[in-house]
From TrEMBL:
Domain Glycosyltransferase 2-like, chain residue ranges per copy: 20-175
InterPro entries, per the entry: Glyco_trans_2-like (IPR001173), Glycosyltransferase_2 (IPR050256), Nucleotide-diphossugar_trans (IPR029044)
Protein name: Glycosyltransferase 2-like domain-containing protein
GO MF, any single term: glycosyltransferase activity
Domain of life: Archaea
Alphabetized CDD domains for the sequence: DPM1_like_bac
Entry-linked Pfam families: Glycos_transf_2
GO cellular component terms, semicolon-separated: plasma membrane
Keyword Cell inner membrane appears in the UniProt entry: no
Stretch forming the signal peptide: none
Keyword entries, A-Z: Cell membrane, Glycosyltransferase, Lipopolysaccharide biosynthesis, Membrane, Transferase, Transmembrane, Transmembrane helix
Source organism per UniProt: Marine Group III euryarchaeote CG-Epi1
Length: 276
C-alpha cells in the first residue's frame, strides 16, 4: 500500500519561491542571446524569484564569452564553465548541484523548447506533481529515421521503468527540487531522471509542447546516442526495479566499473560567473 503522507500538496510553490532553470550548452553561441531574451520574457511576469544556470560544456566557439555578456546584462543568468567536454548528462548534473531553487527545470539551449512553455510546467508542478515531463506530441515533420527510433525507445523506457512518460528524450522537464538531492548521473541518465527520483507516492505530470527547428548551431543527435540510451536504460532498471536481485546488483556494479568511470564524478568545474 502506498503511503501518501509525504505526497506533494497542491499549491506547494508559493509566491516568492525560487525557480532554477538548468541549460547545458555546447557550441551554442548563435542561440544564447535569443534564449536569454525569451527566458526573461517568460520568467519576469511570474510571481517567483528565478535564476538561469547556463552550463558551458567546454565549447570550442564563443559560448562562454556570450554567457559572460548575458550575466552582465542580467545577473540572474549564471554561468558554469566545465574543464573538459563532459556531455549533456554531466552538464545537467553540474547545473542541478549548483542550483538553489525550490523547483528545477531543465531545458536545451537550442530554442527547440519554447521558454514560453515554462509557466505550463510550473503550473503542473504546483498541482502536486513531483516531476513534469514535456511531450513533443506533433513530430510528423521529423525524419522517419529519428521519429521511429524515438517511438521505440520511449515504449521500451515506459515498459522497463514503469514511468508512464510519453517522451523520455525531451530535455524539457520540471522537478520538485528536494527529489534531486543526492542525485548521481552517468552516461545519458538525464533522459531517465524521472525513473531515478520518483517515489511511490509521487505523481508525474505531462505537458504537450510545440517543437521548433533550432535557430543556429548543429544538432548533436545520432545513432550512438540511442545505443547508449538503451545501455543506460538497462542499468537504471537494474538499480530501481530489480535492486533486491543479487544478479542485477552484480551486473549494475559491473556497468559502473566498465562504462561509468568507476563511479567517479563525470565533470569538473573550471570557473563560474554570477555566483556569490
Amino acid at each position: 500500500m502506498v503511503d501518501n503522507s509525504n505526497k506533494l500538496k497542491n499549491g506547494w510553490l508559493k509566491p516568492g519561491s525560487k525557480i532554477s532553470i538548468v541549460v547545458p550548452c555546447y557550441n551554442e553561441e548563435e542561440c544564447l542571446t535569443a534564449l536569454a531574451r525569451e527566458m526573461k520574457l517568460a520568467l519576469d511576469p511570474l510571481d517567483y524569484d528565478w535564476e538561469v544556470l547556463l552550463i558551458n560544456d567546454c565549447s570550442t566557439d564563443s559560448t562562454w564569452t556570450m554567457m559572460k555578456v548575458i550575466n552582465h546584462w542580467d545577473s540572474r543568468f549564471k554561468g558554469i564553465h566545465l574543464a573538459y567536454n563532459s556531455g549533456q548528462t554531466a552538464g545537467t548534473l553540474a547545473g542541478i548541484r549548483n542550483s538553489n531553487g525550490d523547483a528545477v527545470i531543465t531545458m536545451d539551449a537550442d530554442l527547440q523548447h519554447h521558454p514560453r512553455d515554462i509557466p505550463k510546467v510550473l503550473e503542473l508542478l504546483n498541482e502536486g506533481n513531483a516531476v513534469v515531463s514535456s511531450w513533443r506530441y506533433d513530430r510528423a515533420d521529423e525524419p522517419a529515421g529519428k521519429r521511429i527510433p524515438s517511438r521505440i525507445s520511449n515504449s521500451l523506457a515506459r515498459l522497463m521503468t514503469g514511468v508512464p512518460a510519453h517522451d523520455f528524450g525531451s530535455g524539457f522537464k520540471g522537478y520538485y527540487a528536494p527529489r534531486l538531492r543526492d542525485l548521481i548521473l552517468y552516461g545519458s541518465f538525464h533522459r531517465y531522471i524521472p525513473a531515478l527520483i520518483l517515489q511511490p507516492q509521487d505523481t508525474l505530470g505531462e505537458v504537450r509542447i510545440d517543437y521548433r527547428d533550432r535557430i543556429g548551431g548543429k544538432t548533436k543527435y545520432g545513432a550512438t546516442r540511442i545505443l547508449k540510451g538503451v545501455r543506460d536504460l538497462i542499468y537504471i532498471t537494474m538499480i530501481t526495479r530489480l535492486k533486491g536481485n543479487i544478479l542485477a546488483n552484480l551486473y549494475a556494479n559491473f556497468m559502473v566499473y566498465l562504462h561509468y568511470d568507476q563511479g567517479r564524478d563525470t565533470y569538473r568545474i573550471a570557473s563560474k560567473i554570477g555566483f556569490d
